[in-house]
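Box 3.1 — From sequence to structure: Replication factor A C-terminal domain-containing protein
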Amino acid sequence: MTTVTSTVHAAVRPSSLFTVLTHRGCARFHVRGCIRSFAPGPIARTTVPYCTQCAQLVPYVGARSRRACQGCEQMPTAFRYAVIARVTSLSDKTGLFLDALLLDEQAEQFFGIPAVDLHGSLNSQSRQRIAKIRDTVTRQGVACDLAIAKIPLPNGDAQYRIVDTIATV
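Predicted structure (token representation):
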């Protein structure tokens, strides 16, 4: 069962996925939708650099990659890799889909289980717990409220992150 980790966005009216997908720039949205998939991936394929000072993702774009986000250029040590716990496919009543990332710290808040436990070789007890979580959050027609951050990428695409849960599923 997803638990409330913040009420900061609770009073904000949910945005449609259309609004999130078409918005230009970096922003946070309150989204009400159904989680359609639960897909923890191999750690090697699911790491992205991000700034530990402000938690903004800093996409790797080859040798010219920045070592910190624009707001933290003076802090190159604020750069490290984060484990993405899973990729979810959210859908809302409009029928649109959005793939969102869940990083390590938020994964622990969201699931009550460390992100590293979602990857690699797991013991039987961890697998059963994750199966229960997956079955709970992906139940047909069960909606949840999430705070989604939209982060523009240098190539013109955008990345979406689940940054908070808003209400109990």
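Summary of the box: Strands lie at 27-39, 47-51, 79-91, 97-103, 143-152, 158-165.
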